[in-house]
Amino acid sequence: MRHSLFPTALVCAVTLQALSATPASADVATISSVRHDVAGRKLLIHGSGFEKGAQVVLEATFLKVTALSRFDIAVEVPDLKPGN
């Protein structure tokens, strides 16, 4: 039985931190959608204002960012126990 990672994706998206070398001029990161790519074991986050150095944190764990643009972030999903 597969367990949905939708709640995990939501938590992950809410804890997204966009970092900038110049915080005073940084845009506010906004998340429009989060999609879990089960086959690729990734979370695909779509929004705006993402900048170099953006990080995604899930339950105090920094996830590996595999792709980053101003509008999209892809991160690897770690092995999780059902219900996380």
Q: Based on Cα principal axes, name the global outline.
A: globular
How do the strands line up in the largest sheet? 1-2-6-5
Q: N- to C-terminal separation?
A: 15 Å
Tally of extended strands?
6
- Gyration radius, to the nearest Å? 13 Å
Residue share in helices? 10-25%
Helix tally? 1
Largest sheet: 4 strands, antiparallel
> Mean pLDDT, rounded to whole units?
76
Give the helices and strands as they follow along the chain. HEEEEEE
The helix-and-strand class reads: mainly beta
Estimated share of beta-strand residues: 35-45%
Poorly predicted segments: 6-22
Give me a quick take on this structure.
The chain is mainly beta. It contains one helix and six strands.
Describe the structure in your own words:
It contains 1 helix and 6 strands. It is mostly beta strands. Strands 1-2-6-5 form a 4-stranded antiparallel beta sheet, covered by helices on one side. A two-stranded antiparallel ribbon has the order 3-4.
